[in-house]
Amino acid sequence: MDLLSFINFFLLPGIVQGAIYALGAIGVTLIYAIMRYGHFAHGDLATFGAFIALAVTTALGLSPYAALPVAVVFTGIFAICIDRLFYAHLRTFPKIITTIASFGVALMLRSFVQVVWGVNTTSYVHGITRPENWLGIRIKSHEIITLVVAVALVVILHQFLTRNKWGKAMRAMSDNPDLALLSGVDNGKVIALTWIIAGGLCAASGFFLGINTELKSVMGWNILLPTFAAAILGGVGRIEGAIVGGLIVGIAEELSVLIIPGEYKVMSAFAILLLVLLVRPTGLFRGKVL
Amino acid sequence: MEWISILNYPVYLAIFVCIYGCLAIGLNIQWGYAGLFNAGVAGFFAIGAYTSAILTTPHAEGRIGGFDLPVPAGIVGAMLLAALIAWPIGRICLRFRSDYLAIVTIGVAEGIRLVARSEEWLTNSARGISGIPRPFGDLPYAQAQLAYLGITAAILLVVYLLVERQAVSPWGRMMRAIRDNEDAARAMGKDVPHRRLEAFVLGSATMGLAGALYVHLARTITPDAIDPMLVTFLVWIMVILGGSGNNRGVLLGAVIVWVIWSMSEIVTDQLPAEFALKAKYGRMFLIGLLLQVVLRFRPQGLLPEALRKTPRDGNRRRAAEDRTAPAAGKIED
Fold it and tell me: Residue B324 — pLDDT band, cuts 50, 70, 90?
């Protein structure tokens, strides 16, 4: 196999898939860092965001890319509502109880999508996109857009967390919630902000998953395992770790078909997860251990 | 024999209550006693179902076995294999907080579904395994159902008595001590990861047992027969609603949840066809909502875990407060 076909058939699809996982994993890692629990409804929240984008596309006849910002903002606000309704009152309980509640929220979100949009597979645009050819590297336009938007979102998030007052407050609360509270950080507002960011990124990951493959009600549940594997591989609580972890998991999935049957592709994320827990539970970037 | 066929539906319902009762007790060992979040209940259930099916069916072309063993051997095999698969998972995950166990058990359930789907030599992939024997299966339908109810009820009773015995034994006390204060238990010299592993393996074996009981009832198994999210979730809501840490509570939860779940199906089947399919997902939504409502208004469940001793005056109020806290233990950082 020559280098070009390696890039075209394995590396590029892996990077695109990895970018999708990374967007989800950033949310998982942020929620863990600020609120200290694993959020299992993350995959189904991504499905929800993707279908909101579909609803906007079909109702207004817009291009799917115009629907993306709407879906991101809507899902972000929706995530705050979920938190207020189902998680907020559990804050004084052991954190694992909230994880169980999020498992229930995952079922509710998925059933909601199935009732409203049905269980059949659908897509944003019909027909096949022809790949563009750049010096032998074949890449489709929606793949380019996925990567550009993912990089833009990550840069904006990084600037926000390092420059903005609220971004710094988020990092402070991640490091030490009690100290942050004593220093005058409003924990409630930081939590709401976290949900907006995590929910928005989640919708983006669901949208790009939908535009690169297809839309179905269980697609979010299916990316939950790779998303968590990415967050844990990068180091829980580390945003740069979630990005690197997402890319590694995505590329490993695409490369795994070289050695294992294609049906078991999704199991490579599972293998990575077990390996990380066994060898280096803090992850590549020395994150927290749950 | 008209009178006996009137009983058909209640008997069918009761058999499933017994099977789910086994699953709920298995989860109660893991969550109620040890505070372990197993999100792959359906996976261990499926392992049990497939193992017993392969062990007890007559020889078949194109797949492993069947070994034509008696049903009890199939049930024992189901429990053993479920335990054997739980062991390495527990070894890796139980050193950490239960979130890791949850995500890994989701992966296990997913992996088992993939294996059932794609490994023709093992599970006959999509066509599944059929012709699974059933004890007293030669009797007429109604009597056979009654006989099977007798068997499942007897097995459930044995499981219940054994687990109850285990819970009041020093082992049970030690498990609760680990769950409620891991650091103190460790300071007293308890090997926490090892004890958690015991609870995880024991609970998984009980789930495998439930899988075997299911497969000898259904007499056929395909990869899509077990909806992973649905089965796992129904068992979870049974345990949380009934009262985690209390075996009578989780059995009560199994009765309530399964009766609601099956009865609501009768209602939605009356709807016109275009709504009937959507109604199924609507029912799943309501089950998810039920969990949120229980966690909101009665986190300790209907029958909370009973504390055996009345503490002395000063501690009485604090113990009463403890009792209303969910039986989860302080396993966060």
Answer: very low
> What per-residue confidence (pLDDT) applies to B326?
46
Residues 6+ apart with CB under 8 A from A1: none
Residue B325, pLDDT above cutoff 80: no
Residue with tokens 């979100």: A109
Contact at 8 Å (CB) between B73 and B56?
yes
* Interface residue B162 vs chain A (CB under 8 A): no
Instruction: With cut-offs at 50, 70 and 90, classify the pLDDT of residue A290.
Output: low
Q: How far apart are CA A258 and CA B275, in angstroms?
A: 44
ipTM: 0.89
pLDDT beyond 70 at B317: no
Specify the pLDDT at position A8.
84
Class of domain A3-123+137-279: mainly alpha
Check CB contact under 8 Å for A261 and B118: yes
Whether B233 and chain A come into contact, CB under 8 Å, resolves to: yes
Name the fold adopted by B2-324.
ABC transporter involved in vitamin B12 uptake, BtuC (1.10.3470)
DSSP state of B125: G
Q: What is the DSSP letter of A215?
A: B
Q: Is the dihedral of CA A8, A11, A14, A15 positive or negative?
A: negative
B98 near A CB under 8 A = yes
| pLDDT at residue B332 is higher than 60 | no
Task: For residue B41, give the nearest of B94, B96, B98, B110 by alpha carbon.
Answer: B110
Q: Which of residues 208-267 of A touch B (CB under 8 A)?
A: 221, 224-225, 228, 232, 261, 263-264, 266-267
Mean pLDDT of B6-31: 93
Residues of A in contact with B93 (CB under 8 A): 277
Q: Is A66 on the interface with B (CB under 8 A)?
A: no
- In this model, does residue A144 exceed pLDDT 60? yes
The maximal CA–CA distance of chain A, rounded, in angstroms, is 60
What was the pLDDT predicted at B328?
45
CA neighbours within 13 Å on the CB side: how many for B233?
Answer: 26
Interface of A with B in 8-37 (CB under 8 A): 36-37
pTM for this prediction:
0.90
